[in-house]
């Protein structure tokens, strides 16, 4: 059985920056409240570009930086909960824009766990000879599904996209352990409905829905997922935390990450965070963090790191990677 390694990462975030001070002008909030409760000071918000465009630019960034030809990509998976089309899939739009005409392309929905879900699915595909290289993208224009009058949610999120290119390898490196989980029974803690049901049988004056969540439930869930999954993956692979260079968590809230670090009795320096710059970009967040780390040379050949995601569904997952 072949291994699967990460050969490239990429990202794209809109240029337009919205600070906490900008939000003070539209809802009753303050920079101090947002910064102290979440760690977020600004986020990128699309001024016109859509999820498929962000996804395309993140994918292209990963391919171009590493001189990978689009026609060599066999599989494109886009994770998003804010697609611009119901049909076609965001992944098919990206395939067309990239000219990746040999790929099969489809979307998945796993909210903030999307990139890890995508990597898991890609790895399973890549057990077959046909799928030698896969492009996994997390892309969100969450600003489309946020209620900009709701201070409980609008301060938390940002728009962005990230990409990871995976390749089959005979080397004993790459994704060493990866798994994903769901708990649909708890799913109502974080929701966003699609269009209201209105048809020849149903008359409805239901408004378009926006992201809603139970902040404290998600907070507790996030802490538990990070702490449990890091502990479990270390045990299962006979590793200690000292064998791990970095933990790359979903970027939802600095306090979630710090509380999980305390539970694990690990310095929060072990966790890479960039929440301050981007807020929570859902499926894109772990990949944006990873790409930044690669660009800063924080990860070298042979280093091990753990990616851990959690989000709507509820869904969660982790990946142990040796680079
Ligand atoms: N500005 C000012 N006050 C606010 C704001 C705001 N933007 N938002 C809420 N408040 C108020 C609340 O109304 C409440 O006021 P009240 O006591 O008069 O009712 C008060 O602040 C305290 O609210 P809490 O919910 O107790 O604040 P908390 O410290 O729990 O922080 C937060 C809220 C930041 C949402 C926190 O619960 C959290 O981070 N939860 C995790 C959720 C998350 O990160 N979701 C992201 C998406 S989900 C995902 O990525 C999986």
Automatic annotation (TrEMBL):
Q: CDD domains recorded for this chain?
A: KAS_III (cd00830)
Keyword 4Fe-4S attributed: no
Region spans: ACP-binding: 251-255
The answer on whether this UniProt entry bears the keyword Cytoplasm reads yes
Family assignment?
Answer: Belongs to the thiolase-like superfamily. FabH family.
The protein's name is Beta-ketoacyl-[acyl-carrier-protein] synthase III
Alphabetical UniProt keywords: Acyltransferase, Cytoplasm, Fatty acid biosynthesis, Fatty acid metabolism, Lipid biosynthesis, Lipid metabolism, Multifunctional enzyme, Transferase
Q: Which GO terms describe its molecular function?
A: 3-oxoacyl-[acyl-carrier-protein] synthase activity; beta-ketoacyl-acyl-carrier-protein synthase III activity
Pathways per UniProt:
Lipid metabolism; fatty acid biosynthesis
Quaternary state and interactors:
Homodimer.
Which reactions is this enzyme annotated as catalysing? malonyl-[ACP] + acetyl-CoA + H(+) = 3-oxobutanoyl-[ACP] + CO2 + CoA; (2S)-2-methylbutanoyl-CoA + malonyl-[ACP] + H(+) = (4S)-4-methyl-3-oxohexanoyl-[ACP] + CO2 + CoA; 3-methylbutanoyl-CoA + malonyl-[ACP] + H(+) = 5-methyl-3-oxohexanoyl-[ACP] + CO2 + CoA; 2-methylpropanoyl-CoA + malonyl-[ACP] + H(+) = 4-methyl-3-oxopentanoyl-[ACP] + CO2 + CoA
Return the Pfam families for the record.
Answer: ACP_syn_III, ACP_syn_III_C
Q: What is a single cellular component term in the Gene Ontology annotation?
A: cytoplasm
**Which Gene3D superfamilies does the annotation name?**
3.40.47.10
Role, per record: Catalyzes the condensation reaction of fatty acid synthesis by the addition to an acyl acceptor of two carbons from malonyl-ACP. Catalyzes the first condensation reaction which initiates fatty acid synthesis and may therefore play a role in governing the total rate of fatty acid production. Possesses both acetoacetyl-ACP synthase and acetyl transacylase activities. Its substrate specificity determines the biosynthesis of branched-chain and/or straight-chain of fatty acids.
What region holds the Beta-ketoacyl-[acyl-carrier-protein] synthase III N-terminal domain? 106-184
Gene source species: Oceanirhabdus seepicola
Kindly list the biological process annotations in GO that this record carries.
fatty acid biosynthetic process; secondary metabolite biosynthetic process
